[in-house]
Amino acid sequence: MSAIPFSLRIFVADGDPDGLRIVERSNWVGRALVFPRAAWAQPSVANRPELQQTGVYLLLGPREDGEGDRLYIGEGDPIKPRLASHHSGTAQKDFWTRAICFVSMGQALNKAHVQFLEANLIRLAKQAKRVPLDVENKKNETEPTLSEADRADMQVFLAHMLGMLPVLGVHAFEQPTQAPAAAAPELTCKGKGIVARGYESTQGFVVKAGSLAMAQTVPSMAPSMLARRQELIDLGVLAQQGAAYVFTQDYAFSSPSTAACVVLGRNANGRMEWKDAQGRALKALQENDPA
């Protein structure tokens, strides 16, 4: 099934492109508020009526190693007291630097609705394994009981949220579920005794399930790449298989070089390491160089 095109309307509420943004999607009753933590106390954010509504929210901030984001998923009835507690109250979260809140401007969401959205967002983030979740989100989430009609409505609401989030710079819930396009040939990356297969996609560079990675890393490997590799082992994306690691699922990396570093256990230029069936490096393919 082809993706359905949609448009977003972004209103910069205080005139600062890095401040509060109100985001609406075509033909949808939902609304997103996006703002940095530094703007929380400003009247333009603190006095927004949307924050007095029931909704679901994401808190994002840098990982401890500085590579990418970490994430907390929550719900509030209403949202504002929950965000206040995460900013400076009893449930303070030190890591977050930006927030994204979702509410409905049509029929109001209720507590069960946002609990359903929260549980499914946590489930999808756990499955995708792209962004570390805050420790409070690592518990098992049970969906609330909804009527058949409410459940259908919330599944549509969730689908619209998931479509918007990558446009807002959040890729925590994306999973590579489509085969590579005809224009994106399968590429291989080889090391001693291992072969990994992958392809370029709009989600990043995807390494396919069943690909192998070196069991050992070299001492000179960049600390950030060592941490990224260990994170994938801890998450179960990489599992021990004999004298190597195996990818247990298709996994999208931010770049071919990050993918190559994880596969080879050393610093690597992915544009040179990933090659097609004729031995042409990704760099040559990207530059349309037949050599």
Structural account:
- A hairpin with a 2-residue loop joins strand 8 and strand 9.
- 27% of the residues lie in helices and 24% in strands.
- The protein has 8 helices and 13 strands.
- It is elongated, with a radius of gyration of 21 Å.
- It is of the alpha+beta class and 291 residues long.
Helix content: 25-40%
Strand order of the largest sheet: 1-2-3-6-4-5
C-alpha end-to-end distance = 37 Å
Shape: elongated
User: What is the number of helical segments per DSSP (H or I, 4+ residues)?
Assistant: 8
Class per helix and strand makeup: alpha+beta
Radius of gyration: 21 Å
Query: In total, how many beta strands?
Result: 13
Mean pLDDT: 90
Describe the sheet with the most strands.
6 strands, antiparallel
Order of helices and strands: EEEHEEHEHHEEEEHEEEHHH
The fraction of residues assigned to DSSP E strands is: 15-25%
- Name the poorly predicted regions: none
Brief account:
The protein has 291 residues and is an alpha+beta fold. It contains eight helices and 13 strands.
